[in-house]
């Protein structure tokens, strides 16, 4: 099957079933729908379990061998060919205000690849595997990409199981509760290669009128939680000059991040996505604010510099405002470069199938960035309408979703016959 990285020879007759792909995406989206057309399936909730149960039933319908490991990663293998599998996959957990496509598309397209091969008598040289990785979003349990991180041995199972959710429970207990504490070995099998298909979640492809992104890497991510403790007091009687107000300090931190991003240039992004104020009342100067900082850059040196500047600012403002500031690291991943050989396969197949294609880095975090630690890896992006994601309005044209799934199909077949020792 297929060819090597520099010479794709595609069977143009072989293509995925567009209606089936869309049916499955829409069926999964019927679990835990929210207003505006999106989904809320925070990791390891009952909704996540219902989504898992549905996708696992589809995996079993395809006679795939389904295993679940100690952190709930689900790996389904179609046992054909020999050697380690060529793997695809993504996640089906969502943020609280998630869309239908983030993660779900990649998993469902993987099943489409397997079913298309099975129905057309195509027998790849390697097994094909589809993974659903636990808690990619990190919205309920930090860090993000937690399941794939553990899958590649980047965090111990014990450490992961002890992480607590933003709403209290321990990850290990939630896995047992929803019936997804498995026994498959972890770290898991190292794939022959890994390709993840995903919506772009940003505006670049659409702005450039390009259908496919051949993703060259993922920017670095730094997450921390900042807790500011001040002096709670009466809103009417406390003179401004005597205040130690954590809400004011939180606002100054948000402004500092915005200005820092402007100074560092377009590769620097900073977000304050979660702010909890206590006691959160109109006429009380707050006692405490807890806020999250999400700081990302494609350049590790600049990311470190940004982190140092933020730390210095926190010290400075704690002193000047007479508050106490403590920080807790939630996630820290360096920028990742994908495997040039896999990027080239994706780019060539996309072009051969008649798609406009560009190379680009990913602004969002993805499971592929963890798999890249252990095997040749890259990603395929399709456009997001208006660049909107992590929002129920997230959407992608059906033709683009179908084009991406066909590239995944041919890329996986190509990688089955790529001898990485030789290319
Ligand atoms: C995951 O979606 C992330 O990039 O935050
Ligand atoms: Mn995702
Ligand atoms: Mn996401």
UniProtKB/TrEMBL annotation:
Keyword Hydrolase: yes
Keyword ATP-binding: no
Coiled-coil positions: none
Transmembrane segments: none
Domain Peptidase M20 dimerisation: from-to ranges: 217-318
InterPro entries: Amidase_Cbmase, Bact_exopeptidase_dim_dom, Peptidase_M20, Peptidase_M20_dimer
GO molecular function, one term: hydrolase activity, acting on carbon-nitrogen (but not peptide) bonds, in linear amidines
Alphabetized UniProt keyword annotations: Hydrolase
Protein name: Unannotated protein
Organism: freshwater metagenome
């Amino acid at each position: 099957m297929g060819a090597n990285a520099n010479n794709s020879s595609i069977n143009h007759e072989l293509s995925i079933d567009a209606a089936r792909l869309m049916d499955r995406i829409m069926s999964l989206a019927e679990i835990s729908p929210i207003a505006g057309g999106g989904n809320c399936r925070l990791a390891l909730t009952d909704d996540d379990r219902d989504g898992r149960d549905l996708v696992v039933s589809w995996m079993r319908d395809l006679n795939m061998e389904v295993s679940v490991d100690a952190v709930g990663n689900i790996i389904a293998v179609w046992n054909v060919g020999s050697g380690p599998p060529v793997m695809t996959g993504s996640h089906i957990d969502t943020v609280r205000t998630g869309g239908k496509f983030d993660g779900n598309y990649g998993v469902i397209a993987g099943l489409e690849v397997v079913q298309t091969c099975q129905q057309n008598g195509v027998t790849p040289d390697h097994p094909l595997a589809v993974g659903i990785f636990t808690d990619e979003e990190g919205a309920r349990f930090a860090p993000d990409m937690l399941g794939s991180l553990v899958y590649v041995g980047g965090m111990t199972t014990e450490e992961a199981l002890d992480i607590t959710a933003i709403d209290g429970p321990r990850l290990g207990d939630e896995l047992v509760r929803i019936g997804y504490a498995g026994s498959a070995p972890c770290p898991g099998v190292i794939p022959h290669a890994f390709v993840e298909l995903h919506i772009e979640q940003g505006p670049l492809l659409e702005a450039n009128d390009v259908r496919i992104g051949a993703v060259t890497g993922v920017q670095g991510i730094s997450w921390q939680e900042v807790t500011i403790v001040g002096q709670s007091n009466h809103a009417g009687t406390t003179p401004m000059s005597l205040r130690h107000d954590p809400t004011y300090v939180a606002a100054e931190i948000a402004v500092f991040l915005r200005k820092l991003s402007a100074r560092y240039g377009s590769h620097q992004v900073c977000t304050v996505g979660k702010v909890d104020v206590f006691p959160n009342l109109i006429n009380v100067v707050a006692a405490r604010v807890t806020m999250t900082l999400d700081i990302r850059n494609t350049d590790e040196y600049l990311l470190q510099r940004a982190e140092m500047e933020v730390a210095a600012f926190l010290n400075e403002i704690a002193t000047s405002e007479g508050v106490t500031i403590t920080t807790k690291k939630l996630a820290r991943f360096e920028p990742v470069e994908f495997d040039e050989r896999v990027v080239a396969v994706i780019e060539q197949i996309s072009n051969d199938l008649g798609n406009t294609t560009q190379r680009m880095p990913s602004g969002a975090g993805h499971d592929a960035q963890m798999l890249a630690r252990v095997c040749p890896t890259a990603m395929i992006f399709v456009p997001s309408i208006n660049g909107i994601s992590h929002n129920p309005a997230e959407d992608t044209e059906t033709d683009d979703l179908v084009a991406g799934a066909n590239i995944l199909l041919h890329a996986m077949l190509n990688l089955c016959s790529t001898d990485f020792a030789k290319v």
